Amino acid sequence: MTATGSYLAARSKRGSWLVRMEDLDQAREVPGAADRILRTLELFGFEWDGTVVRQSTRTHRYEAALERLQSQGLVYACSCTRADLARLPQNRDGEAVYPGTCRQGARETSLAPALRFLTGLPGRLTAFHDGLQGPFAQDVAAAVGDFIVRRRDGYFAYQLAVVIDDAEQGITEVVRGCDLLDNTPRQILLQRALGLPTPAYAHLPLVTEPDGSKLSKRQRSVPLDPARAPEMLYRTLCELGQLPPPGLLRASVGSLWAWAVENWDTAPLKELSHVAV
Q: At CB < 8 A and 24+ separation, what contacts does 166-170 make?
C-alpha cells in the first residue's frame, strides 16, 4: 500500500519514482530477498526510474558524512549496553529516551562504542508540515535524546543513511508510512547539521491488524500473489481512499495504473489514520 501511494504521488506529478534497498544490516539480510522484492514490484506493474540504489554499497558516503559531524563536535562515543538502555524511560514507540550518559566520555573504553548525534538541550522543537498529517513538531532531545548514527557493530544507522541518500539522489518528496513520522525530526536535524536540503514529507496511513496494531510479518501478513495483481491493486486503491470504477475490478494492471495516476486524490488520505485488514 505504501509503495502504491508513493508511486502515485510521483507519477501524478509526472515525477520520477526511485527504488532504494535499505540493506545496511547485512547480518539480517535474507539471501535473494531483495531480488524477490524487485520482481514482485515488476509483476504488480511498478516501473522505477534509474538504477536501484543499495545502501550496502554506499558506506563510504556515510563515513564521510559522519566525519563531517565529528569535525563539528556533534557526535560522541557511547558505551552503554542494551541492559543499560533497558533501564531507561521509554517513549510511546518503546524506544529508550537517552539522557546523554556518555556525553562527557564513554564510561567503558574496552567496548566498541556506538556513536550518537548530539541533539542539544530539551525545549527546542523541530517542526515541519506533513503533506498528509499536517503540522508536526517534536522536541527530539526530550522525545528520544541523543540518537545513534553508527551502531556498536559498525553498521550505520537508518537515520544517517537515508539523509545522505535523499540528498545525493535529489529527492524532493518522501512518501512513506506513518510509522516513520517520528523519525522525520531526527532526519531534519541531521540535514541541518550537514547543510543538506529538507525534502517535502507525506506519511501515509498504516496497514494494521483488526486490533489497531501494526501489520506484522509474524501474525497475519502473507506474501503477495502476483496472479491476483489486478484484484489486489484495485483493493489497495480503495484502501487508499480512491474510488476506482467497479468496471476496473477485472481490468488489467496497466489499465488500473492509468486510471489511478490520472485520478490520484490525497484528500481522502488526510482523513485516515490507519487501514485495518
A: 166/196, 166/199, 167/191, 167/194, 167/196, 167/197, 168/61, 169/18, 169/20, 169/53
